[in-house]
Sequence to fold (207 residues):
Amino acid sequence: MKLLLASNNQKKLRELARILEDLEIQLVLPREIGGIPDVEEDQPDFAGNARKKALHAARSSGMWALADDSGLEVEALGGAPGVYSARYAGTHGDDAANNAKLLRELEGVPAERRGARFVCALALSRPDGSIALEVLGTARGRILGVARGTHDFGYDPLFEFTEDGFSETGRGFAELEPEQKARVSHRGRALREFAKKLPSVVDPRSA
Fold:
């Protein structure tokens, strides 16, 4: 099955490709087909943005297209930064500025009120521009007072994974090796659910 990943974020593409590599899927990146037009991410939630991007990519390319929208929701901030996660500080993709703003917004907030979750919404569109599958993955934790770890990607250095029953509990996302993170991350969970449901939507051998 040839599947277009509707994203130009290289870090995200690498993570998606690593998790999907065992499936019977030939991943196609936008640059391999000459690029796809940008689309405005103006929906009120992650699922809406993922759906819009998947439909746009499929209609532009005539291919099966997988899109994701993901970000961080912090309880003490009323769910912010939410769908504005990538541009929280004003410039899209400026991880350092986004993290600095998050720490400023949470200055003085005690650890017990720093609950947060990462969310990943995935949407798969058929080549005809109709949605075939949607899934959602989450990972719960809290926001640290200082950055930890060296595997920095977005807000990972400030996010401590705290769900019970995992050996990674109490460790920051940026402290986890890629394989460890894939087991517990919002994106890893969403992709495993996607892989489980994919056969009921399409036979990869005929797509």
Summary: DSSP finds five helices and seven strands in the chain. The CA atoms of residues 7 and 67 lie 7 Å apart. The chain has one domain: 2-200. The longest strand covers residues 131-143.
